[in-house]
Design goal:
The complex is a heterodimer. Chain A is mostly helical. Chain A has 14 helices and no strands. The longest helix of chain A is centred in the N-terminal third of the chain and has 31 residues, at 76-106. Classes of the chains: A mainly alpha, B alpha+beta. Chain B: Residues 4-234 form the ABC transporter domain. Chain B: This is Carbohydrate ABC transporter ATP-binding protein (CUT1 family).
């Protein structure tokens, strides 16, 4: 005799229908709100709605014109490429690899050095984006710390890094800002690797690199997947730091999709086109998430 | 195969010294068990032999070569860990081949060795399963298999049975003994369980607080413990410790005497007997009887006993001892007495220590009974 409800309802709720309904209400409301906003974006992506002027009130459906523009007009594909570069180097290579290296190195140490480095990492993470952006701009400007303290004494002409190496500086800034998260997550993951398993590999003759690649990394693979999922989504949609540092410039060198979306929607005022960009971003992030979720799955 | 020597081996973690100078010679092919309570340093000592802990002082040598600075894989050792430490993402076969693969052994030889080990351990059927699909006992075999395929000079076991249930533990114990008989390799085995030590060892090393308390064959340790600690630790049922007066009372009807200078008298539960009716002895009342079938354990409270010496345990298969609440009188043979001085060191008992104790057939026969 199986209660049909038991297949989906949590057992301590399924006993009483009123409790079940009551417990489900906030969740339903939340899902509803989420769907409402997403639908709003999807619907407007098929319109020529604008922020100002006549089309702000008198808009009409234009079919898939906005989506065609994504591929035919300059802007979107370039911005997508910038975003992918930014995400790949700052999140996947920078934060994740650096975070893992720090976590695996520092776990051997106890005490003040580890504490100091952890506090420094956290400071980057906790500092408000706008403050961080200002600090990075000031440090890398023509009269900033890097030029004054490092390049000047070496006899090198002052360089305006934010002008000449904008994307590189923004990537570095985001690595500095976000590594703490990867560090924390990988530290926790490495705590879950049994010490005796690593020692067994040591006795088996595996050197540090072999132990890492063939024993430790496979064991923490689900954690790597989780981390990649988070930091890819965050970095892909990351707005304030870049916007405050460069505003997407110079030119459109650092114009990642969120900035492109913001410019198109609120500077240019094309809300319909902006909606199409956001729906496209949603699709891209969704595809990447599916890829990482497959990593998370335990093998059979 | 190789012999192994420890010379003045010391280990300190920061300022805390956990191994305080251990000297030990282990012969080629010998099965040596390190036994002691938790925190005695037995696992640390094993890990130092394995090369997983650095040596703070002294020398560890295997096969005549000093191994202090040599990394674990080049010491010719294999280790079986308490948690089995199987690689969770690899199949049984991959677990066993991993070390050989790292060493660059060719595929055919690797396969041959893995299959030979699987045959010995009867795990051939699970070679392609993941460790998580195996029971505790099966995992244990895989861990041993992984150690075997490396064909080491010395096997190291770190409490390998402590995660198994009692029935499986007994069975695996016998299998490890068989494995030793079959391979003839030097084995060092760490345990806190004196039964494993007694049943497996050629020689037992009893450790306490980072020092060796005694080294000897199981029977030597059972018959002639060097001090009260070893006496209390070795033996299936914990030795009774009595005051000298109680010892004299126990021996009153036998003509035996408590050695001069004795502060503590030890007597094993299996060596106590019921006194003849009317004969003198140590009297007490039975509180609890634990009936095991082939024998019973009688826990008594002694009459007029000093603090700390109120209770005594008797192991007997005699019938008619009486149930709970019965008043009985105990005695024992003078040779079965262990006497210890105020520092706990063993004194010559009814007969001289050493040779005298080694040939005490009566004890042996009663023990085997």
């Amino acid at each position: 005799m199986r209660d049909p409800r038991s297949s989906w309802a949590s057992p301590w709720l399924s006993g009483s229908i009123p409790v079940l309904v009551l417990a489900a209400l906030p969740a339903l409301l939340f899902v509803g709100v989420l769907l409402y906003f997403t639908l709003w974006a999807v619907v407007f992506s098929f319109t020529d709605l604008e922020l100002f002027g006549r089309k702000a009130t008198d808009w009409s459906f234009v079919g898939i014109e906005n989506y065609e523009r994504l591929f035919t007009r300059r802007g979107f594909l370039e911005s997508l490429w910038t975003t992918l570069t930014f995400t790949f180097f700052s999140a996947i290579v920078g934060q994740s690899v650096l975070g893992f290296l720090l976590a695996s190195t520092l776990r051997r140490y106890r005490g003040s050095m580890r504490g100091t480095i952890e506090v420094c990492l956290m400071l980057g993470w906790l500092l408000p984006d706008i403050v961080a952006a200002f600090l990075w701009s000031a440090t890398t400007s023509k009269t900033g710390l890097v030029n004054q303290v490092i390049l000047g004494p070496l006899g090198v002409e002052p360089v305006n890094f934010l002008n000449d190496y904008a994307l590189q500086v923004v990537i570095l800034a985001n690595i500095w800002k976000g590594t703490a998260w990867s560090y924390l997550l990988y530290s926790a993951a490495l705590d879950n690797v049994p010490g005796e398993v690593v020692e067994a590999a040591k006795v088996d003759g595996a050197n540090g690199w072999q132990r890492t690649r063939r024993v430790i990394l496979p064991i923490i693979k689900p954690h790597i997947g989780t981390n990649m999922l988070f930091i890819t989504i965050w970095t892909f949609t990351y707005f304030p730091l870049i916007y405050a540092m460069t505003g997407g410039g110079p030119g459109s060198q650092t114009e990642t999709l969120p900035i492109f979306l913001y410019q198109q929607s609120f500077s240019v005022g094309k809300l319909g086109y902006g909606s199409a960009i956001s729906v496209a971003m949603l699709a891209i992030v969704g595809v990447m998430s599916i890829f990482y979720l497959r990593l998370l799955k335990e093998p059979k | 195969m190789a012999d192994l020597a420890l010379k003045g081996v010391r280990k300190a973690f920061g300022g805390l010294e956990v191994i305080k100078g251990v000297d030990l010679d282990i012969r080629d092919g010998e099965f040596v068990v390190f036994v002691g309570p938790s925190g005695c340093g037995k696992s640390t000592l094993l890990r130092m032999i394995a090369g997983l802990e650095t040596v703070t002082g002294g020398e560890v040598s295997i096969g005549g070569k000093v191994m202090n600075g040599v990394p674990a894989p080049r010491r010719g050792i294999s280790m079986v860990f308490q948690s089995y430490a199987l690689y969770p993402h690899m199949s049984v076969r991959e677990n066993m081949s991993f070390g050989l693969q790292i060493a660059g052994m060719d595929k055919a030889e690797t396969t041959r060795r893995v299959e030979a080990a699987a045959e010995i351990l009867q795990i051939g059927d699970y070679l392609d399963r993941a460790p998580r699909a195996l029971s505790g006992g099966q995992r244990q075999r895989v861990a041993i298999g992984r150690a075997i395929v490396r064909e080491p000079e010395v096997f190291l076991f770190d409490e390998p049975l402590s995660n198994l249930d009692a029935a499986l533990r007994g069975q695996t114990r016998v299998e490890i003994a068989r494995l030793h008989a079959r391979l003839g390799t030097t084995m060092i085995y760490v345990t806190h369980d004196q039964t494993e030590a007694m049943t497996l060892a050629d020689r037992i090393v009893v450790l306490r607080g980072g020092r060796v308390e005694q080294v000897g064959t199981p029977l030597e340790l059972y018959r002639a413990p060097a001090n009260d600690f070893v006496a209390g630790f070795i033996g299936g049922h914990t030795m009774n410790f009595l005051s000298p007066e109680q010892g004299r009372a126990l021996l009153a009807g036998t003509g035996g005497a408590v050695p001069a200078g004795a502060k503590i008298i030890g007597v094993r539960p299996e060596h106590l007997r019921l006194a003849e009716p009317g004969a003198p002895g140590l009297t007490g009342r039975i509180d609890v009887v634990e009936e095991f079938g082939e024998f019973g354990l009688y826990h008594l409270t002694l009459d007029e006993a000093p603090e700390g010496h109120r209770e005594i345990t008797l192991k007997s298969d005699a019938e008619g001892l009486g149930g709970e609440g019965a008043q009985i009188t105990l005695t024992c043979r003078p040779e079965a007495i262990h006497a210890f001085d105020d520092k706990g060191a063993a004194l010559a008992a009814g007969s001289p220590a050493g040779a005298g104790r080694a040939d005490r057939p009566s004890e042996e026969t009663r023990h085997v009974r």
